[in-house]
Amino acid sequence: MPEKIFDYFIKGEKSKWEVVIGLEVHAQVLSKSKLFSSSSTKFGAEPNTQVSLVDSAFPGMLPVINQFCIEQSVKTGLGLKAKINLYSVFDRKNYFYADLPQGYQISQYKYPIVGEGEVTLDMPYGTKKIGIERLHLEQDAGKSIHDLDPENSLIDLNRSGVALMEIVSKPDLRSPNEVNVYVKKLRSIMRYLGTCDGNMQEGSLRADVNVSVRKVGEKQFGTRCEIKNLNSIKFMQMAIEHEAKRQVELLENNKRIDQETRLFDANNNTTRSMRSKEDAHDYRYFPDPDLLPLRLEQSLIDKLKKQLPELPDEKKERFIKEHNLSAYEANILVSEKEISDYYEEVVKKSDKKLASNWLTGDLFAVLNKNNLSISQFPISANNLSLLINMISSGKISGRIAKEVFELMQKKNENPEKIVETKGLLQQSDPKELEKIIINVISNNKDKVEQYKSGKEKLFSFFVGQVMKLSGGKANPQLVNKILKNKLK
Amino acid sequence: MTDLSNSTLVDLIKGIKKKDFTSEEVTKSFIKNSEKSDKLNTYITKCFDQALISAKKFDKKKDHKGLLSGVPIAVKDLFCTKDVKTTAGSKILNNFVPTYESTVTKKLWSEGAFLLGKLNCDEFAMGSSNETSFFGNVTNPFGDKLVPGGSSGGSASALAANLTPATIGTDTGGSIRQPASFTGTVGLKPTYGRCSRWGIVAFASSLDQAGPMTKTVEDCALLLQCISGYDPNDSTSIDIKVDNFSSDLTEKVKGLTIGIPKEYRIENMPVEIDELWKKGINFLKDAGVIIKDISLPHTMYALPAYYIVAPAEASSNLARYDGVKYGHRSKGKNLIEMYENTRSEGFGDEVKRRILIGTYVLSSGYYEAYYLKAQKVRQLIKQDFDNSFKSVDAILTPSTPSSSFKMGEKEGDPVSMYLNDIFTVPVNLAGLPAISVPSGYDKKKLPLGLQLIGKPFDEQTILNLSLALQKRINFKRNVKIWWK
Fold first, then answer.
1. Is A5 contained in some domain?
2. Neighbours of B129 (CB within 10 A)
3. Are residues A232 and A189 in the same domain?
4. N or C: less crowded end of chain B, CB within 10 Å?
5. Which residues of B are catalytic?
6. For chain B, percent helix, then strand, then coil, each to nearest 5?
């Protein structure tokens, strides 16, 4: 693939601007129970049915750390090639809100569980490493519902206390598309690890986006604005684009950017100020006296490291090396764990290159067209490998294969059976093919003359006629060979 | 029949086991006293009917298992008790009935005791005189208009007035030991992490500990044993073996070394207290103890550090009382106004003062100068003790710089009130165990206590030393019943 050049800039009236972006991704830890209580984290339960005395902050209730959530965040840290801190501290972030029962959120401030790491992005202009600043654990708040009752706000505490990993990137991202690829890569890594389901519709993955702009070539960062709580990649991209333009406009008109927190309004695609730096909350962080500092054993980290599954980057390398795939193909196949699992299942019994072609071509086309995920795809990996084998053994042609592929989607039928019952087996008997070819030649004497006098383009006409007469089943390679002989 | 309410906890349990008397008789005697005690204002919630039912049920049982079998016990109203109103002495929890039982009280009931009632205390345990309770002052049985100390003032008064055979309080900066000293009773603050804090309304999480308040050292050892132990629900409780404090209790303390810290000789301390201290030293010498002068150089910084750390934690711990989920709620046009009205009406002045101080010292720009510095001081204070304990087994000091004072005497002068905790606060900052033993009277005929401070998890040594003191001092609690 030819390498393109990075070209995302905002063109103002006066200059060309570069956009600088940093992300704080809030990823819900995949765990059965909450960070400090045994309540269930299952999505979609009736309001306030998954709330313990701890989650609702009754007097005298105390948090007890969920060891599984700790291990999940260590795993995630390892997946981000990050430093795992053997010593970390839980702090209280104090603020009042109706859906924050304790009046503080337990989070990690000065001493997060995971330190610096990196994520590699495959961009059309080459690979790019995005720095990870830190990952810390914190509790989620409950949910306030303001539009169900005309008089009151309602509170659902089911989410209250659910474990979140806040993954803070360095300001290394430069375009909405890089943000898109970065979030997808993060999600992919966590899904490979089984540490976050990455389900954005259910709120398992949200992000706050920090945006600033600077003239191309400038070294200093501009003043940034933070856009809070974006729950889809599309919104992140829209918000960034709008916010960058807003900032450029201000700067080109010699106005100042105020460091502030803004909210994105998807209805009219704008951001608006939520609070300025002066009005910023003073969260009065201090170490939670109900929890001792978290001390991890190196042996635990070593153990978790050994248990790590193969991650997308390594899998990609392996596909390139061992399966002879192009970087582009490998990248697509490893982007989602389920897809790579499916691919690996298919290639257990069939040709790797053909399998890759079928997955990235026809199969993806079906998924995209019908908006399906691979787990919803009707054809089993085993049946697809049977189909591929029939192609590579010459039993059916590629064209017939596409036909069979269509039929298989209806009820995941065995392709061999379809070919048999529909009589689609490839015609590879030279004698039979010769008969058809002689027939075609004798019926098109004028074209044969033209061909022989130099109009070689007509060759495909003859092939087409043969295929037509054979009902599409003729082996194209054999047809080519015999035709060439006969037309000499 | 002798008045059972005069007996010690140990004697009552023995008597019930030997069937000298029944649990019902015991319970009735304390209920009788309690019913006539309204002037002392010790109870916030009385559970007398239920206690009698429990006693009768107990008497019908054949085997009387448990270390506390058949005794009614009233507890400080800071312990959450299932289906029994728990107020923490505050209007904001005036209507709060927990659906759960604190670990410490659960342990009492599992040893065969049952709840007699919930005892008055300073609001959220913030106070040294029991004058900050929403439910009014508690009076010291040693005299009308006298404070019982605080914050476990209701517990101390009830105990001294024979309204309960024993009780448990909580101690964040002296809230068990100071009222014990003011009422001529024994009060012990265990090592931080010895007892579970689960289900205790929190004041300052890194300092709070539940502890026994009793008439004698023997009772104290028994009750401590019952409430101690690791609790997986409290991440700060420590998984360490609980000794058999009661059966290991001995007055044989010969050869132990006791430290006398020179920094506890403060200016303007009443002569009687200095004399009492000397008396204590002599008694311990008599028991074969070696006396050693020691220095705890950072003592003078303990009180200021405490009044930063404790309010800081309190300001955060009390944020949950916002009118949203339980407790008192005032009306408001919007959420913020509802918060403001609820907390303005629900909290008393002292609690508000400490929330304000705590919020201030944690605020950005002040955090380093106050909270962080206070934590450093705390480390130094702990180091002082660690160093001393290399050469001594325990430390002897007065429990308080004065005896009980008149209600209202320190009103409007919070600093003078805070000074009451000057001898008790360093112990909480260092997380150590300490006990106050009734040791004599001042010239106003008010009781005074001596404090023994021990090494972490070495409650046994201070209990043994206390027993040796108790035997030699032979303290008589001269309470005249004036309130009936």
1. no
2. 30
3. yes
4. N
5. 76, 151, 175
6. 40, 15, 45
By the 10 Å C-beta count (0-12 exposed, 13-18 middle, 19+ buried), A15 is classed as middle
pLDDT tens string B60-79: 988 778 999 999 999 999 99
H or E element that contains B344: helix B335-346
The pLDDT value given to residue A74:
98
Quick check: is B114 in a domain?
yes
Q: Determine which of A121-135, A349-363, A443-457 has the lowest per-residue pLDDT on average.
A: A443-457
Q: Determine the structural domain holding residue B101 and report its residue range.
A: 4-259+390-473
CA dist B211 and B155 (Å) reads 11
Domain enclosing residue A54, as ranges: 10-304
Across all residues in chain A, what is the average pLDDT? 92
Q: What is the pTM of this model?
A: 0.91
Half-sphere exposure of B105 (CA within 13 A, CB side): 29
The domain that holds B26 is classified in CATH as 3.90.1300.10
Tokens in use for A447? Answer: 């074209």
Share of chain B above pLDDT 90, in %: 94
Domain count, chain B: 1
Cα–Cα distance, B255 to A170 (Å, whole number)? 63
DSSP B89-107: T-GGGTT---SS--HHHHH
Is there a single domain that holds both residue A417 and residue A434? Answer: no
Strands B290-294, B257-261: pairing is parallel
pLDDT of residue B1: 55
Query: CA–CA separation, A184 vs A120, rounded Å?
Result: 11
State how far residue B201 is from chain A, nearest Cα, in angstroms. Answer: 4
Q: Specify the pairing of strand A270-276 against strand A260-265.
A: antiparallel
Please name the residues between 88 and 117 in chain B that touch chain A, using a CB distance below 8 Å: 88, 93, 96, 98-100, 102
Which residues in A have their CB inside 8 Å of a CB on B?
Answer: 53, 56-65, 92, 94, 96, 98, 101-104, 153, 155, 282, 284-286, 289-292
Q: Which residues of chain B make contact with A282, given a CB cutoff of 8 A?
A: 363-364
Given this model, what pLDDT does residue A1 score?
A: 46
Lateral strand order in the sheet of B43-46: B43-46, B114-119, B72-76
Tens-digit pLDDT profile for residues A331-364: 999 998 999 999 999 999 999 999 999 999 999 9
| Parts of chain B with a pLDDT under 50 | none
Assign residue A476 the CATH number of its domain: 1.10.10.410
